């Protein structure tokens, strides 16, 4: 494990100092949470899987011209990244009706969304990461209209890369959460892209292959994560 100084510990990762002042080390944990941390548990080797899957997807996106915080994977559980200032807005891209969207609007789960929609959530644990719109974020002086446009455009651009990538591997990218940061005055994709942050359904069986298996006590959680890693990383 890294010998750097612990800067921050979140639900799924620990962040440590690195040799360079403008870089940090992410340590991926096996801890699992759901419903704003009201449900807690452990998914064996989740940290290893999410680290490797994130590496593959960040590399894919970089090749498509999308800036990320990824530098390199250091070990099974450690990733070296740029040290960014996180934008406190979670960007959720939805291709298929599922989860909170179905409950909130009374829509049928499984129906396609064409074109995809982008939602913003204010990143604040104490408030439960509430759904917000552009006006709310401007009211709180969190984001300018220009930044929100960039976040929305990047959400769609990333979706245009990831959706066919997963489809080629027989997985439907139902929806996913993105976080962004600022590095040297440039907006970059941060955090991770993994079965923790993506809702994925097997295209043949329709089975869930993500953290919903933990949220809903569906069983075979580790097997689902392992299968995602196998298909994504080959």
TrEMBL record:
EC numbers, comma separated: 6.3.2.6
Keyword annotations of the record: ATP-binding, Ligase, Nucleotide-binding, Purine biosynthesis
Catalytic activity: 5-amino-1-(5-phospho-D-ribosyl)imidazole-4-carboxylate + L-aspartate + ATP = (2S)-2-[5-amino-1-(5-phospho-beta-D-ribosyl)imidazole-4-carboxamido]succinate + ADP + phosphate + 2 H(+)
Domain SAICAR synthetase/ADE2 N-terminal: 6-231
InterPro entries tied to this protein: SAICAR_synt/ADE2_N, SAICAR_synt_PurC, SAICAR_synth, SAICAR_synthetase, SAICAR_synthetase_CS
The protein's annotated pathway: Purine metabolism; IMP biosynthesis via de novo pathway; 5-amino-1-(5-phospho-D-ribosyl)imidazole-4-carboxamide from 5-amino-1-(5-phospho-D-ribosyl)imidazole-4-carboxylate: step 1/2
CDD domains according to UniProt: SAICAR_synt_PurC (cd01415)
Domain of life: Bacteria
Biological processes annotated in GO: 'de novo' IMP biosynthetic process; cobalamin biosynthetic process
Top class in the EC scheme: ligase
Single GO MF annotation: phosphoribosylaminoimidazolesuccinocarboxamide synthase activity
Family stated for the protein in its record: Belongs to the SAICAR synthetase family.
PANTHER family: MULTIFUNCTIONAL PROTEIN ADE2, SI:DKEY-6E2.2
Protein name (database record): Phosphoribosylaminoimidazole-succinocarboxamide synthase
Species: Nitrospira lenta
Gene name linked to the record: purC
């Amino acid at each position: 494990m890294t010998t750097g100084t612990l800067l921050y510990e979140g639900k799924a990762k620990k962040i440590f100092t690195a040799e360079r002042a403008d870089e940090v080390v992410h340590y991926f944990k096996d801890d699992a949470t759901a419903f704003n941390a009201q449900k807690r548990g452990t998914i064996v080797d989740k940290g290893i899987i999410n680290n490797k899957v994130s590496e593959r997807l960040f590399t894919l996106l970089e090749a498509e011209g999308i800036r990320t915080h990824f530098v390199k994977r250091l070990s099974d559980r450690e990733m070296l990244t740029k040290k960014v200032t996180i934008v406190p807005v979670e960007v959720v891209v939805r291709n298929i009706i599922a989860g909170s969207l179905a409950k909130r609007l009374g829509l049928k789960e499984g129906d396609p969304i064409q074109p995809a929609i982008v939602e913003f959530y204010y990143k604040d644990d104490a408030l439960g990461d509430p759904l917000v719109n552009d006006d709310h974020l401007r009211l709180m002086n969190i984001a300018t209209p220009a930044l929100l446009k960039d976040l929305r455009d990047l959400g769609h651009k990333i979706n245009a890369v990831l959706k066919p990538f997963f489809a080629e591997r027989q997985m439907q990218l139902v929806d996913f959460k993105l976080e962004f940061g600022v590095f040297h005055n440039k907006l970059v994709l941060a955090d991770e892209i993994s079965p923790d942050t993506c809702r994925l359904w097997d295209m043949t069986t329709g089975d869930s292959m993500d953290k919903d298996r933990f949220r809903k006590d569906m069983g075979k959680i580790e097997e689902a994560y392992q299968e995602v890693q196998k298909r994504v990383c080959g």
